[in-house]
Amino acid sequence: MSSPLDDTTEREIEARQQAHRLGLANRYLNQAIERHGTSPVVQAVAHVWHQREKGRVRNPGGLLASLLRRPQGQLTPEGLHAARPWRLPLAAEEARAMAAELAPSHNPY
Questions:
Q1: Rounded CA separation 40/32 (Å)
Q2: Please, which residues have CB within 8 angstroms of residue 79's CB and are 6 or more apart in sequence?
Q3: Tens digits of per-residue pLDDT, 65-104?
Q4: Which residues of 2-109 form beta strands (DSSP E)?
């Protein structure tokens, strides 16, 4: 019978191997573990790996890196699966105003 510590260590090793296969450098995984803890990082790697196996993501390494860069406390199992709130598309005037604010020197006309 395996102890919970052995099981946790086993899952971490598997997550490290999967992250490596996805192209994530070990130091980024270590930084994420320091920021979020082992369990949330292992869950994030498993989530991305599962999405990759289903063919639902074009760049699984990029998705994993993006998830692991989240601020402390933002890497939760609920956040990995949560749908983002839907909002109406911007009206033309709103889009122009936002573009002018973000790139004041750009004039497409």
A1: 9
A2: 70
A3: 989 998 888 887 666 665 556 677 888 888 888 887 777 6
A4: none
Measured between alpha carbons, how far apart are the two ends of the chain, in Å?
71
36 part of a folded domain: yes
d(C-alpha 45, C-alpha 61), whole Å: 10
Which structural domain range is residue 22 located in?
4-83
Tally of domains in the chain: 1
pTM of structure: 0.69
Q: 23 lies in a domain? A: yes
The long-range contacts involving 94-103, CB below 8 angstroms and separated by at least 24 positions, are none
